[in-house]
Design a protein that fits this description.
Elements: E1 7-12, H1 16-24, E2 35-39, H2 49-57, E3 61-63, E4 75-77, E5 83-86, E6 92-95, H3 107-118, E7 122-126, H4 135-143, E8 147-151, H5 160-168, E9 173-175, H6 177-187
Parallel strand pairs: 1-2, 1-7, 2-4, 3-4, 7-8, 8-9
Antiparallel strand pairs: 5-6
Helix pairs in contact: 1-2, 1-6, 3-4, 4-5
Length: about 190
């Protein structure tokens, strides 16, 4: 039996800013689910991703902060140079452990911790990117009973990331960015 979705986690790398803007552009004003994104960013440089997304989307976007609780209706992005995890009490945890799949922040770590915290009440989305990061994490979401979406590799700016997921698992849906945006927009009134 499907459950109401309580959060959406998203991962992307090369081409990810455009992908996030497209997907988030489908969300209605007042969309209430928290959206938590890891985008591979250059380390040791301040990121303006949250400002860019907030300006372009006209909705609240924040960099996730250590020990902060996850609020409804907010888009969260990972900070550069820090892994982002979700604790059992649905708060964020930041760490500087070694890179995973050559990446910090790691999509896999976010997805795996979110799967542990939310179980079947989670939707995971993996989009364009040039690494294998995210594939194992998306599988963890599926094994925890959550819903899994993969961007159609034929549409992705760089297909490595979605192709890595498809080589490892059969997601619930393979969609274009437009399809992903529409799917997420419907989650608030439906189930995962």
């Amino acid at each position: 039996m499907s459950q109401a979705c309580e959060a959406v986690v998203l991962g992307a790398s090369a081409g990810g800013v455009e992908a996030l803007l497209t997907v988030f552009g489908y969300l209605p004003q007042g969309f209430g689910l928290p959206l938590i994104a890891v985008l591979h960013l250059p380390e040791r440089r301040p990121s303006e991703l949250s400002l860019v997304l907030e300006r372009r989307l006209g909705r609240p976007v924040r960099e996730a902060q250590d020990k902060a609780g996850i609020e409804r209706g907010i888009i969260y992005v990972a900070s550069p140079s820090y892994h982002l995890s979700i604790e059992q009490d649905l708060s964020f945890s930041l760490s500087q452990e070694p890179p995973v799949n050559f990446s910090r922040p790691s999509i896999d770590l976010l997805f795996e911790s979110a799967a542990d915290a939310y179980g079947p009440r989670l939707t995971g989305v993996l989009m364009t990117g040039a690494s294998q990061d995210g594939a194992a994490g998306l599988l963890a979401i599926q094994r925890a009973g959550g819903c899994t979406l993969v961007q159609d590799p034929r549409e992705a700016r760089v297909a490595t990331m979605p192709e890595s997921a498809l080589a490892l698992m059969q997601p619930d849906h393979i969609l274009t960015l437009h399809g992903i945006g529409e799917y997420i927009a419907d989650l608030e009134t439906g189930s995962c």
